[in-house]
What does this fold into?
Amino acid sequence: MKVLVVQNKVHEKIEETLNEIKGYLNEVKEKLDFIILPEMFMMPYELKYMEKYKQSNDSEVLNFLSGLAKDNNAYLIGGSIPYTADSKIFNRSYIFDRNGKVITQYDKIHLFEVTYPNGLHFSEAKVLTRGTKPTTFDTEFGKMGVMICFDIRFPLLANKLMNDGCKCIFVPAAFNTYTGPMHWHTTFKSRAIDNQLFIVASSPARNSFGKYEPFGHSLVCNPLGRIINELDEKPGYFITDIDIESIERTRAILPIVKNSVDFD
It folds into this structure.
């Protein structure tokens, strides 16, 4: 299956960001099966912007995402957006089918929290409400899962998705230039190895609008934990062929999943 991973620059104006993404897709001549966008792909990843950029039903951004899926006849993991409902704001990812219809949605369960070396503390929970339910969706290639950024640090969630039958976990993410060099590659490779499946991560580009500096380095890990495609920190995209059948071959050669023990 062919997966397009987008690493767009976040502009101050949403329209500029959407036009950049559309421009990337206009360059693609191959038939795609999946498209994935980054976490908070249309806004600076700062708490003060969550309210300003929040989206709701029939918003410009959701209509854009629906059209992107339909125009490219591909499943779309719509990155994530600050979505407002019932006076709450969620870090939400919408998943669309090839016809541009919403299949499901996922609200980030593990909200990012960090204290930087200079003592500055950041917590999404100051603005966002966490999700409570893991999310999967069915395709002709098998079941797929979705996580968002900080979720990748929690092995039990990835393991839950694997046990639910997922062949690939799509992860819109936005590690920064502090957390990225420490753990970006390690965590994505580890979750792929632990669960012997594919991990696809999409990040905003480094030179995005705002003070937050995304790490970039969008990537794909195979079931052996090998990075089979990766960008640097600059805006761009890549297309990767994912061999879903290699999952069972990997699990037969090195039976980690088979020998896993549940201690509950």
In short: The chain has a mean pLDDT of 96. The first helix runs from residue 14 to 27. The CA atoms of residues 163 and 195 lie 9 Å apart. The two ends are 36 Å apart (CA to CA).
